[in-house]
Each structure stands twice: as structure tokens, then as C-alpha cells.
Amino acid sequence: MSSSAEHVLSVKNLKKKLGKTMIIKGISFDIYAGEIFGFLGPNGSGKTTTIRMLVDLIRPTEGTVTVCGLDVHKQHTEALKLMGSIVENPEMYPYMTGWENLEHFARMVPGIGQDRIQEVVDIVGMHNRIHDKVKNYSLGMRQRLGIAQALLGKPKLLIMDEPTNGLDPQGIKELREFIRRLANEGMSLFISSHLLSEIQLMCDRVAIISHGEVIAVGRVDELLEQSTGKVLIHVDSHEKTMQVLESFNGLEVAEAEEIEMAELMRIPNTTILAVRMDMAEIAQLNHALVVAGVNVFAIQVKKPSLEELFLNLTGGESID
Amino acid sequence: MTSLYPLVKNEVLKILKKKRFLVVILVLAALIPIFTYAQLKVAQNLQEQFGSTDWKLETQQRITDYTNRLGSARVPEEWKKYMMVQVQQLQYYLDKDINPQSPNGVTFTRGFLSETVSLFVPLLVLAIASDLVSGERSGGTIKMLLTRPVKRWRILASKLIALTMFVSLIIIMTIVLAYLISGSVFGYGGWDMPVLTGFQVDGTEVNTAYVHAIDQWLFLIMQGGLAWFSAMAVACLALMVSVLVRSTAASIVIMMASIIAGLILANIASSWESAKYLFMVNLDLPDYLTGQLPPIEGMTLPFSMTILAIWAIGSLIVSFGVFTKQDILN
Prior knowledge:
heterodimer; A: alpha/beta; Rossmann fold; 2 domains; elongated; B: two-stranded antiparallel sheet; about 5% strand
């Protein structure tokens, strides 16, 4: 109890076997009070299966999930009282209004009255549409209603699965501020995403998962320090540039992503190369290119991102 | 520990808000007038045929009719058995001076209930029961439902209690609507009309030793109780299928197919004796009250009730066992 009490959520050696295949191969991590914890992995890496085990929708083959020291399976009722969750899409009863949906879920927890429902409606800012039928809601509205539902029981831990799905950029920004506010009030948040930039902007710590295994856990900034950045070089001759690059040591030509290319102005008959290298050598490289007669239009340093880190860790498995 | 009451309230509200019960009422309100009209036509036809409204003449005519057909070599053996039983019963009614088909609202209701219990009432029950769990799964709401601080068996129990309430309501509404609608044509009387019950069919002989007359209102209550019993058996089975199958459509098709199979079996399988252990041939409980020839030899009211109870309890055990343990994968 003493060690697990400071952890709001503690996941130990979680495994799940479906049929003959092991989908989750021993996941462990802890979440502390008031922290925003990111859970990052490509689609199909086992994120949702793990989340379902966290909330006792799926029974793990091995391992335990404890919330404030309570086992979610053995002490189902007590443990789930401390959690609020949205697993995948926030699906509610479409034939009822938002308010009726909240009343429905409030009835399932003792001691939640009309005043608490009003409170969560105000928190997510839905008072205008709350008495409309859910089937007439946009996905963004449903997300808000989902959050309202998850907050009903004043949880210590809020679990959100891909919360930015279906939100416009403004909505995502609002959600980010909202999540930060909840964390500042002492709530712990568990946020899964396949979007690295989201996790990077939102979370304090992150666990990166691939093929049912956690491949890295830590503070986002610390993890990023391990990663080498990418440099985009905009030149006229692909061939000559490659010759110059080969003369540098410890340098690796990487594939430039379409999205990165789009950031640069394209000039006809030119090429963009992406290179992983030590930042200190950029000036030298530029000099060498000029000496070799290559016309350099731009050299851009990409800040290291979780994406790079992810590619480093998984050895190039793609993530979208 | 939360009490079950708010959970049951949730389930009842969901059934009402989905407008499933409204559909049931509308179907009843649309069908009963059709049957009432058909019944009226039959009565008018008979009157034209015999030129009188004397029920004794009419009953005597029916007995003669059956007896004539019994003499024909072309009539299958099973039909002959059925007709011999009918003849003996009609004769008994005639001897006791009781009109078995007195035209009034209560008699219509009695007839309607015994005709609908094997197919129509189960269909109405399925309209409510089939998507109780599968609907939550296909709608994705099961994830929110099962991540509450409530044990899973309590959630299923609340669904079962709500279902029991609606099955009872369906039987009550069938009786009430049939009486109100047909009564406007046939009159609202007939509550204290005597009805004979206690016929025991033994082979082709009707044993009248235990036959006694009871008031029709009491008969209707007994009939309603038996109809409720068989409807509950269907409800428990439908709940199990709804737990096991993810799609509501598939769940309805599975249940309808087995109930219709029961109807067909009841007509053709009188020589396949072990078919009597299937639930679907045992649904017609009210028929035992009037002493109809059972579909398969050896079937009695206590036998059928036991079979239905075993099936119902078995499906509840499976439902709770699976629902409390199953992984919710999507």
C-alpha cells in the first residue's frame, strides 16, 4: 500500500493473450498525482486493448492494474469509483438528450445529484445544447459530453482515448487548456494518441508503445534529448550532394516526409534531402557543399520530435 | 452498494425512450381490429348458413361435420385423433348446455390470447428483449455502462427485472386491448360465463372425469398466467441470445427462427417423440386448459412448464456467466 499509494495508477507486467497470439506483452508504468501521462503508439500497437484492461472491460491474462492501491478487477466497484474514462469514441444513447444521458450515468453512482450534473455541464460548456438529442450532436459535442460523463464521479484519474479525434484546431487548443486546468486541480490524466505532436504538446510524461510492448517511458523533454534532429537540405543537384554527404562521418540520410517537404518552398529542378546529423556540423556541411559547386537554397533544422524518437526506437516502423 | 432500483429505472427509461413499447402497443392496436372483423365475418357466415343464431344447432352441425370427415379414408391419422377429441368435447358442452363460442368481448379475448401465445406474443417480447444487451454492444454504449462502479451482474439483473416488467405489461396490454377493441363489436359482457376446463386427453379418449365449469374471468386469468410463463421463457432465451450475439438483427432472427421451427415441428413431429424436450413446442401452455390434443404424445401442462423452466433457468445461467466474464473487445 505504501509504495502504490503515491501512484494514482500502477500497471504491472500487464499481458493479454487473444487466441494464441500475445497482443500485450508485459506492459508496466505508473502515473503520479496531478500529472498528464501520454500513451503513444501507432494504430494496432495495443493502445486500446491496454486501456480496456485499465478500466476492467478486458481481463488481463497476467499482471495487475491498481488505482490508488485498489485492484480494478478484484475491487471493481471501489476502483472504478476513482476513475472516469472515455474508451474510443464517446458513444452515448442517441435517442436521449445529453442531459438524460448524464442522468442515466449519474444514477449508476450513489450520491451524484442534479447539481453535480449541472456542474459538469458548465465545466465542458455545453449548457446551450444539453437538452438536444445526442443523435443531433457533432463529434465535437459528443467528445464534450463524453468528458462531462467521465467527470461526473469527481475522479482522481481521467482516462481519455484519442481525445482530439473529430475536433477542429480550435477545439484541440481548448481541449489542451482544459486538460491542463484539470491537472492543475490535482487530477491525473491518461491520454492515448497516435498523434505525436499532440502528446508532445499536452503531456508531462509519456509511454511509447509498439507491438504490445512499452519501448520507452519518461519525461517528454528527457526523451527528446536522446533523439538526434533532422536537417533538411534544399539543393539543386542530388548526385553531387550525396557525394559530399558521404565524406562526412556519423551522418545518415533519412527519408524526408511529405509534410516536411511541404514546409519548404519548392523551386523547379531542385531536390530536398533529409539528413540526421550532429547540429554542430551544419556550417561545415554548408561550406563543403558550396565548395563542391552545389547551389544551396535552404538548410532547415527540424526540432527533434517524438516522431524521430519513435522511429529511432522502433527502427523505422512508420507511424501516422 | 447501490441499490438495484436506479439501475432498473435506467433500463425501463431506455426501453421507453427507444419507443419499443410504443411499437408493441401500436402493433396490437392495429392487429386486434383485424381479428375482430374476421371473427365478426365468421359469425355472420355461420348465421347465413344455418339461418338461425341458435348455437346448439351450430354446435350439432360441427359435430356432424367432424364425424362425417372421420369416416373418410383420406384423412390422415393425426387429424382423425384431433377431430375425435373435438367431437367428444363439443358433445360435452352440448350436454352441459354451455355455448363454447358465445360472442362477447371476453370470449374473443380468450380466443385471441390462446391463438397468439405461440407466435405473436413471443414476437412482441423479442421486440423488447432482443437488443437489451446486443443493442448496447452495437451502439458502443456498453463501454460506458460497464466502466461504472457497478458490478456487471447487477447491470444484467437490472435488465432482467425491467424485461420481466415489460413482459407482464405485454400480456396485460394484449388482454386489455383485445377486450376493449372487440368489446365495441361483440359487447363487453361474458365475465361470468361458465367455461369447461379439466379435460384430460388420453390417446384419443377424452377423460371428462375432472371436467368442471369455471367463470370465464377466472379462466382468462389462468390463461394470462400461463401465457406470461411461456413469454418469460422466451424472454430469458432472448436475453441469452442478446448476450451471446453482437448484432440485434442476428439475435432477432435466431429467436424467430427457433420459434417458427417450433410451430412447424408441432404440426409435423408427432411421431418424433423426443422433440417434446425442445422449448419451442411447449410454448402453447393455455391450450392445456381447454384440453386440446398436445402436439406430441406424453406432453402435459406440468411437463411443458418444467421444460420451459429448465430452458429459462439454463439460459439465465449462461447469460450471467458470460456477461460477467466476457472481454469487451469492441
